[in-house]
Amino acid sequence: MKRNVSELLAPAAAVLLVALVVAAAAGAWPPFVAVESGSMEPTVERGDLVVVTSTERFPWGGLVGHAEPGAPTRLGGAGDVVVFNPPDAERRPILHRIAFPVSAGEDWTDRADPALLDGDCDAIEACPAPHDGYVTYGDANGEYDQSAGIAPVIREEWISAKALVSVPNLGWFRVGVDAAIARLGLFPTAVGVGGAAAIAGGFGAMLMGRMGRGRDGPR
């Protein structure tokens, strides 16, 4: 019985260990973000899993916009891609690219790309900038977030992490779990996921056991 229990728990323990190691290296928890929209396509698509790090983590410290000289290449473009969540937002955290920093009271449209603006400063609620922060955008969107009304000027304290790399399609599990929690609740989802993990672990242990007995059999 003890052996069967340990074999069932081994896959979950291995996944947790990997997550803890990645979190320690990245300096952020959770160290992964599942992408739920297509606003960063084509480099990052819905269902991808993105590895994130603390905004100050060496050697990726600081926040750099795409318009700044020597901006690093992140996820298919120049500048940092960050996870932010304005306190008054009703949606989930957003994963978008930093365009450039702005100062309180600044008419930042003077430095903006006209193709990503819908009108001048007088027509944009987030202009002049109400506070210091960042102008952001999704690579696949046609406007800055602040021009389209998606988000206000992003304060630095609203940014929880920045993205390093993305892995195609590995985020679908997280997206599915979140959808199940929203539909069924946390406890039923936890029971279902735990049961599925136990069954998968038991099947894998049984398969490995049979393979081991086959290798030890008559020759």
Automatic annotation (TrEMBL):
Which Gene3D superfamilies has this protein been placed in? Umud Fragment, subunit A (2.10.109.10)
Keyword annotations for this protein?
A: Membrane, Transmembrane, Transmembrane helix
Q: Where are the transmembrane segments?
A: 186-209
Q: Where is the Peptidase S26 domain?
A: 14-98
Entry GO CC? membrane
**Cross-referenced SUPFAM superfamilies, in alphabetical order?**
LexA/Signal peptidase
Q: What is this protein called?
A: S26 family signal peptidase
Taxonomic source organism: Halorubrum yunnanense
Q: What is the lineage of its organism?
A: Archaea, Methanobacteriati, Methanobacteriota, Stenosarchaea group, Halobacteria
